[in-house]
Amino acid sequence: xxxxxxxxxxxxxxMLDLAFHAGRGGEVVSGAEVAERxxxxxxxxxxxxxxxxxxxxxxxxxxxxxxxxLARRAREIRLWDVVATVxxxxxxxxxxGRLQVAVVxxxxxxxxxxxxxxxxxxxxxxxxRRAQAAGLKRPATEPLNxxx
Length: 148
Description:
The chain is mainly α. The chain has a single domain (5-133), classed as Winged helix-like DNA-binding domain superfamily/Winged helix DNA-binding domain (Arc Repressor Mutant, subunit A). 53% of the residues lie in helices and 5% in strands. It has a two-stranded antiparallel ribbon with strand order 1-2. Strand 1 and strand 2 form a beta hairpin. It starts with a helix and ends in a 15-residue tail after the last helix.
């Protein structure tokens, strides 16, 4: 599989943002909010949301209060599942020179295999723990108060 680094990193960032900001109750978070926090155009990352939803990693809700939430618990979502969802199938970019065939292509397969092993061993929950270790605080969800 030929990894598309830009889409892979965006997909991981989207999933981590949702896990971090949706709270423990799994509240729905709008795609526009995620895009704003990531410094991306919503229109530009919408295909990533769609791919993650089709793969069963995100649940989506339509409407004015719509948005996305994780379809499973963070500890059940492996980073490789996220990356594989948005990566393109393929072997190489089509280069056929001797150095490409003898050196570059085997090196890329080796790197790809190592990266896959690492991503298979990490979950979104691992990234949430890294965020906590970095001193980042998850937003507290306050209960609604309907006192009149």
